[in-house]
Amino acid sequence: MLAVLADRTYRHLFLAQVVALVGTGLATVALGLLAYEIARADAGAVLGTAMAIKMIAYIGVAPVVGAYANRLPRKAFLVAMDVIRCGVALLLPFVDEIWQIYILIFILQSASAGFTPTFQATIPDVLPQEKDYTRALSLSRLAYDLESLVSPVLAAALLGIMNFHWLFSGTAIGFAASALLVLSVTLPRAAASPQQGSIYDKTTRGTRQYLKTPRLRGLLAVTLAAAAASAMVIVNTPVLVRGALGLGQSEVAITLAAFGGGSMLAALLLPRILDRIADRTVMLAAAAAMTIFLTLLTAAWTVSEASRLWPVVLLGWLVLGASYAASITPGGRLLRRSSGTEDRPALFAAQFALSHVCWLIAYPLAGQVGARVGMGAALGASAVLALAGTLVAWRIWPREDPDVVEHDHGDLPPDHPHLREGHAEGAAAHVYVIDELHPDWPRR
């Protein structure tokens, strides 16, 4: 897995991702504690609303960026987004009203909605071989797990010597370091080609292509199940641990670390697993596991005394973390197979936006149900949502999902990107253009 770090450009981008996510992890812990300080018992509802605002920013901004990302200077754009995020992080310690949290979260996440899909679409260009890209996806998953594992542990240590408000300075340092690392490399130029149609056509093109691809519709349903589990963890862990279980700030960080530990374990194992088992099988099994364990946690919360449940919650969060990673990490492979070089930024942006529609459903559900009815009901609602996503994915994702579908190009013009890229790299793009160019072909 670590062999891909021999590529200098990818190594610096990976380090940029790591330091930014460590800072983001500190902000996750600090934001939960800030919400609890301001809103007390309603902190779950505040965090649920804040995360809903985050989703709205992602859904609104990402498609616009995806439509024009191949025309923007990648390095300058990525650095600008990091600078904006750094500035917002420096303002968060001074917040003392709930509405201020909401405004700053919207600005911060709008910048992330520009940065993340552009960053993700750059990696396949840096590592064009699928084997290398698969390893990079697992390393990327490990980087994300630093937000759930290393950052909470670091936060727990820092909270012993300082007020949680100072954790936001670590977030700012992370974004600043990320910007410097991006500046240190030369990024591949995005393939730009004229796009016909209105602004609406351009901004929705990636989404339309995404929704015409059967495997990606399955990916979206699996993402709904993953969102149900992760939303429960992110939104309700502070209230569950501090309120229902009566524990302290450090236990909040440790509980979040259990989720991250499970995710990291899965990320380490996934490259070998995906070499032997189809992506569909791995992802559907992981979605089913999340559904089962959310159901078991609901039952445990119903029949047991809350004060004795912390070990059960730790084990449940560990399993949910492992299942979460296994359900979403292979998604980049599916996107790469379903796009050509010119279409990749738009398709990654579509995945970014559409997947966050799932979180837009899951975050308010977990937060509002937890605040109004209780943690047992929140766990149950999350289990139902995960079950819905799992069943839909199993139904709509074809069992036979070939990378290349045999067909005839017919009368496509010679300069069409489908022909221009050739079958070596562009064959995967054939999957989605089937529906758009040749409606009579079998849809898989």
Automatic annotation (TrEMBL):
Compartments (UniProt record): Cell membrane
GO CC annotation: plasma membrane
Gene Ontology MF terms: transmembrane transporter activity
Keywords associated with the record: Cell membrane, Membrane, Transmembrane, Transmembrane helix
Source organism superkingdom: Bacteria
Bilayer topology annotation: Multi-pass membrane protein
Protein name stated in the entry: Putative nickel resistance protein
Organism: uncultured Sphingopyxis sp
